[in-house]
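Handoff note, outgoing to incoming analyst
You'll be picking up this chain. Sequence as last confirmed:
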Amino acid sequence: MSTPSRQITPRGIEINEAAGQPFEALKVARNLLHTSPFASLSTIDAQSGYPYGTVTNLAIDADGTPYFFAAWLSLHARNMAADNRVSLTMAQPGATDVLAQPRLSLVGRVEMIHGKDWKPETERRYLARFPKSKLYLGLPDALFYRMTVEDLQLNGGPARNAVSDVTPARLRISLEGAESLMAAEADLLQAINGTEGEAARLAVLAGGKEGRWKATGLDPEGVDLAAPKSFVRLWFAKPARTPQEFHERLS
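Most recent structure output, in case you need it:
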C-alpha cells in the first residue's frame, strides 16, 4: 500500500519517540475530534493571501467527518469560496495552559452545503450539540461545510510525540454493514434520552461527571454525549452494526 503524500511539511528533524512519555495517540486524537465543542478555523484570505483565523463550533458526522456552520456574510465563508483549503485545530476544552494538553490539527478541503441540501441528520446532530444554533440555522445565508481531512498533526503535550500510524483514515468510522443501526439512530437516541438517568450513566462510564447529559449522536463505535458545558464520548470495545448489538454494548 502506498503512503499518502503529506500536506503538512515534516519538521525535518529526527524524533526519538521512545524517549517520550507513552500515550495512546490514536485514542487521544479520536477523543479530541469527537469531544471538542469548537475549533480554530484557518482559511486563506482571498485578497491578501494571509492566513485568516476564527473560531467555530465543531460537529462530527456518523462516519467521523468534521463539519461546521458559517454564514455567507462571514469573511471566512468568502475565503473558502475562493480557496477551499482549510485547517482546523482543537485542544482540550477548559485547559488553562493549552501547551500542556493534547492538540490536534487537521488540514484538508471543505465542501459547502446549502440549507436546502442539508441531510436531516446533519442538522439534527448539530442542533443536539448546540441547541442555541436554532437561532441562526434558519438564516437565509446559513451554510454547512464538510471537511475532507487530507493530513493531520497530533501533539500529545510535553514529551509526547505522535506516532506515524495516526492518519486521517484512522479517524474515520466505517458505516459498512451498519445500515439498520443508522436508520434507527433517532429512535435509539430518543430511548436513551427518554430513560431517566441513562444518558448520565453513559457519560460517567465515558469519564464525565454527574450532570444533565443528553445523547447527541451515535455510530457503530460509540455514543456522543453533551452536557451544558461539556462533551464526552463513550467508545465501544467492539463495533455495533445493528440496533440489537447497540443495546448489548450499552448494557
